[in-house]
């Protein structure tokens, strides 16, 4: 029997997937797994029995990843589950900025009491005419699940699309329209594109990457879209760019005092993935990831541990070991099983940065003494008996 805790409301489309072997709890101290959306976890005391955290969404800035890794707690996210919802809003944001739809709507609101509003609109509409997106150059920084979908739609809209991502995955490459032009460096995006949208994760290396230097390289009148994370962009530099005429419009999905209500800014109240479909998809994926890990030890879509999938165990036992990614660990593990005359029928070892994960299927159950021996090996964070 497994117990799970929801730190935020999670779509029932996901929680209904739990089998009768799962029970919801309100007590974190007894939770085997946590489902979370936006709740801040950095200051939370994580109990020793906690095995996994599944984020129903892509960003994991609210979760202490390193702290979890050192405790052998796997953190999952749900990449691609909300990509369609975000993609649609990115395209909407691009059209709103290009045609100044927002300015036009505000004019109608401001003039709603005029009896001759229709006639007045014919004179005023030239102020909101805008431009079409067809034949414009769209630069996409980051070709993950969302970036690829945006690129493909933009091609159907008749745009010339440039994509930059030095770490593009094989799956993303396969799904990307073959007519998308691959930029060799990000400056190629800045210097050539009429509209730029950013879709990269927030890390130390990407924080503030769209700043004064990047903006100075952009074409005059550029439209800048940010539906990824607000801290990727130096928004004070963006306001200076708008004032100087360098940036025509800045569209952001992250309201804050810097850009909210400012001229040239279209700020949306974080609606990117806030569709029923996106929330359902994220919840379903998060629950599936959590169940597969708790029941089988398989790790799919983790942000702090490597992918490791050995399916369902058909042997007498399965043991999972969380440890530092250092030399000679596998030798020590296998020696422990050999000393206890237990044959290893299958094994998988994967690493991610400074941590590693090893799963072993064995032909006899592991004893408590064996688990204590494995746990005492220097560099081991946690040993888990799955079967």
Question: Care to give the gist of this entry?
Answer:
The protein is built from 13 helices and 16 strands. It has helices at residues 12-15, 65-70, 83-99, 101-110, 117-124, 145-156, 170-175, 186-192, 212-216, 235-243, 276-296, 329-339, 368-375, and strands at residues 2-6, 22-24, 33-36, 52-55, 74-76, 137-141, 160-164, 181-182, 195-198, 222-226, 247-252, 265-267, 317-324, 344-352, 355-362, 380-385. A 7-stranded parallel sheet has the order 8-7-6-9-10-11-12, with helices on both faces. The protein has a 5-stranded parallel sheet with strand order 2-1-3-4-5.
Kindly describe this structure.
The model has no long low-confidence stretch (mean pLDDT 95). The chain is of the alpha/beta class and 387 residues long. The chain has 13 helices and 16 strands. The strands form three sheets. It has a seven-stranded parallel sheet, with helices on both faces. A five-stranded parallel sheet has the order 2-1-3-4-5. 41% of the residues are buried. It has helices at 12-15, 65-70, 83-99, 101-110, 117-124, 145-156, 170-175, 186-192, 212-216, 235-243, 276-296, 329-339, 368-375, and strands at residues 2-6, 22-24, 33-36, 52-55, 74-76, 137-141, 160-164, 181-182, 195-198, 222-226, 247-252, 265-267, 317-324, 344-352, 355-362, 380-385. α3 crosses α6 (145-156).
């Amino acid at each position: 029997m497994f117990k799970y805790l929801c730190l935020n409301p999670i779509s029932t489309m996901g929680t209904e997937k739990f089998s009768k072997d799962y029970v919801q709890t309100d007590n974190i101290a007894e939770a085997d797994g946590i489902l979370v959306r936006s709740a801040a976890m950095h200051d939370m005391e994580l109990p020793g029995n906690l095995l996994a955290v599944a984020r129903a969404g892509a960003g994991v800035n609210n979760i202490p990843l390193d702290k979890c890794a050192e405790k052998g707690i796997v953190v999952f996210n749900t990449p691609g589950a909300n990509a369609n919802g975000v993609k649609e809003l990115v395209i909407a944001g691009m059209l709103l900025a290009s045609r100044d739809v927002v300015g036009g709507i505000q004019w109608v609101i401001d003039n709603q009491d005029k009896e001759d509003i229709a006639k007045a609109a014919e004179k005023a509409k030239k102020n909101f005419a805008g431009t079409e997106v067809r034949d414009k150059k769209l630069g996409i920084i980051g070709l993950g699940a969302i970036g690829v979908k945006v690129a493909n739609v933009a091609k159907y809209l008749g745009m010339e699309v440039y994509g930059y991502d030095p770490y593009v995955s094989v799956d993303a490459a396969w799904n990307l329209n073959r007519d998308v032009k691959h930029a060799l460096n990000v400056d190629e995006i800045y210097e050539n594109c009429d509209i730029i949208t950013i879709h990269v994760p927030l890390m130390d290396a990407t924080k503030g990457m769209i700043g004064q230097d990047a903006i100075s390289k952009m074409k005059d009148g550029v439209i800048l879209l940010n539906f990824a994370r607000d801290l990727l962009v130096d928004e004070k530099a963006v306001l200076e760019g708008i004032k100087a005429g360098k940036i025509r419009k800045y569209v952001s999905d992250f309201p804050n005092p810097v850009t909210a209500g400012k001229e040239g800014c279209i700020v949306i109240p974080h609606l990117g993935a806030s569709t029923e479909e996106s929330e359902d998809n994220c919840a379903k994926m998060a629950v599936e990831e959590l169940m597969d890990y708790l029941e089988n030890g398989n790790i799919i879509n983790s942000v702090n541990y490597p992918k490791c999938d050995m399916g369902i165990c058909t042997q007498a036992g399965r043991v999972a070991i969380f440890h530092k990614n250092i030399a000679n660990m596998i030798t020590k593990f296998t020696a422990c099983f050999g000393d206890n005359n237990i044959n290893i029928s299958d094994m998988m070892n994967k690493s991610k940065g400074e941590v590693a994960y090893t799963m072993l299927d064995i032909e006899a159950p592991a004893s408590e003494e064996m688990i204590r021996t494995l746990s005492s090996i220097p560099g081991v964070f946690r040993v888990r008996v799955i079967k």
